[in-house]
Amino acid sequence: MSAPSANPSPERTVAPERFVTPAAWADAQLPHLDTLLLEQAHLEKKAAAFAVSFLFRLPLHGALHRQLSKLGREELMHFERTIKLLDQRGIAFAPLHSSNYAAELKKAARRDLEGRLADELLIASIIEHRSHERMSLMTVATRAKEPEVSAFYADLCPSEERHEQLYLDLANLVVDAEAVRIRHAELFEHERRVLHELPFNNRLHSGLPTI
After folding, report:
1. For FRET with 40, which of 72, 74, 122, 146 sits at 20 to 30 Å CA-CA?
2. Can you name the CATH fold of 23-93+101-197?
């Protein structure tokens, strides 16, 4: 792992072209909204654990570690907010099988220590990007008939956008900016294939509906 400088200032990485989810995906999710919200609770809890795990794996850097700690707390607050919304809708917090989206993304991670850490950070950034995109779509799709749910998704979106950039910044602590740029593009292309292969179901990171 390359050692960070005394005062590292990670370069902002310009995101490459990527898969774009059509609005029809969100429209097709409307009959499954309660399950989608149940999954959201599970996703927020997993995201909090994932953020905390990086505190023990990344080079020491006070400012970015504070941001990572804040990210973990924010994910837990989102988890609690989602649980509250589930309670209001009479939905029990129960086990739910995964879409396998994250697991399929992680199959592309390299096996050497430095490469795997950088890839896991970039994959986390990609997941945050996709979550932001799809929550934005759900904000619009639910606005007319489910305004409370629409407001819920709208409130989460800015956090997802910040988290995406933070994971990119953290990847720049592990490898140089050009390596991040190249690998980021490769992993986005891998994500494109994953989303085309996954079936459509009532999950935030599912494949696309048949149109």
Report:
1. 122
2. Ferritin (1.20.1260)
Domain boundaries, the chain: 23-93+101-197
- In this prediction the pTM is 0.90
Rounded Cα distance between 125 and 185, Å, is: 12
How much is the average pLDDT of 36-50?
Answer: 97
Can you say how many angstroms the Cα of residue 136 is from the centroid of all Cα atoms in its chain? 13
Is the predicted pLDDT of residue 8 greater than 90, yes or no? no
pLDDT, tens digit, for every residue of 110-160?
A: 999 999 999 999 999 999 999 999 999 999 999 999 999 999 999 999 999
Token couple for 18 = 């990527």
